[in-house]
Amino acid sequence: MFDKLIGVEERFVEVEKHLSDPKIINDRNAYQTYVREHAELSKIVTVYRQYKLTLGDIDESQDLLKDADPDIKDLARDEIATLNRVKENLEAELKKLLLPKDPNDEKTSSSRSGPVPVGKRPPYLPVIFIGCTAAMQKTVAGK
Hints:
CATH class of the domain at 2-101: Mainly Alpha
Shape: flat
Distance between the termini: 66 Å
Structural class: mainly alpha
Helix content: over 70%
């Protein structure tokens, strides 16, 4: 997983360089492609960089365990426990972000607009409509 994250971070830096290239800026299609890729990679890289910072904080806290002061050691133990939970959450988030994307995610669910034909409506819609109509009639009749 971490080899892939290193590759993603390297690609992110490369894409950022392309986005500042005048040739790419002038090519609208290429620029849009890089902007989309940058946005997608940015999500992963942001979490990965936070993960690396958390690992560094854990190392620093472990160094504090060598301190002679017992209060410092207690604080370091508490900090390590908290940071380990953060690390686990970040690892889970990274695994989720690295899952392959569904190619249909970017497609719209329906390309047409307008009312849904009667045969295509979910079966619960008429029940909701009848219930709302009955409640509205009681309200009007009560006035």
